[in-house]
């Protein structure tokens, strides 16, 4: 560990809009029903090619969470955040999961097909 290398994914993938690094596979998508200050946001089981920043307490519309911003390993922009811990019992499913902001992602082929098709998940509001 500690060496910078980029993981290449196959199939339907989401990439960093800024530099094109692969960020997540569409199979890892849990929900597209999240929102952040800059618009829509998607919840993933796992993401790749990101660094996790320091943890901080953040008040969200669904309650207090311990979160950490995540950064693209290649270009350094903030692409979303990781849920380290949730205080509310019914929000515990998000622990260890990752949010990627819709505005920070692109589809691997530039069509946004995977970004905007197949809405999944329930209606969740978060910030
Ligand atoms: Zn990037």
TrEMBL record:
<comment type="similarity">
    <text>Belongs to the yippee family.</text>
</comment>
<keyword id="KW-0479">Metal-binding</keyword>
<dbReference type="InterPro" id="IPR034751">
    <property type="entry name" value="Yippee"/>
</dbReference>
<dbReference type="InterPro" id="IPR039058">
    <property type="entry name" value="Yippee_fam"/>
</dbReference>
<dbReference type="Pfam" id="PF03226">
    <property type="entry name" value="Yippee-Mis18"/>
</dbReference>
<dbReference type="GO" id="GO:0046872">
    <property type="term" value="F:metal ion binding"/>
</dbReference>
<dbReference type="InterPro" id="IPR004910">
    <property type="entry name" value="Yippee/Mis18/Cereblon"/>
</dbReference>
<keyword id="KW-0862">Zinc</keyword>
<feature type="domain" description="Yippee">
    <location>
        <begin position="12"/>
        <end position="109"/>
    </location>
</feature>
<protein>
    <recommendedName>
        <fullName>Protein yippee-like</fullName>
    </recommendedName>
</protein>
């Amino acid at each position: 560990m500690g060496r910078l290398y980029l993981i290449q994914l196959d199939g339907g993938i989401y990439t960093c809009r800024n530099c094109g690094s692969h960020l997540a596979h569409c199979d890892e998508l849990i929900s597209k029903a999240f929102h952040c200050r800059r618009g829509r946001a998607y919840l993933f089981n796992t993401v790749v090619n990101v660094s996790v920043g320091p943890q901080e307490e953040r008040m969200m519309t669904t309650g207090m969470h311990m979160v950490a911003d995540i950064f693209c390993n290649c270009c350094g922009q903030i692409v979303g955040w990781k849920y380290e811990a949730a205080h509310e019992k019914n929000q515990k499913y998000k622990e260890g999961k990752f949010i990627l902001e819709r505005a920070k992602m692109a589809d691997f082929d530039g069509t946004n097909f995977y970004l905007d098709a197949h809405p999944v998940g329930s209606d969740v509001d978060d910030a």
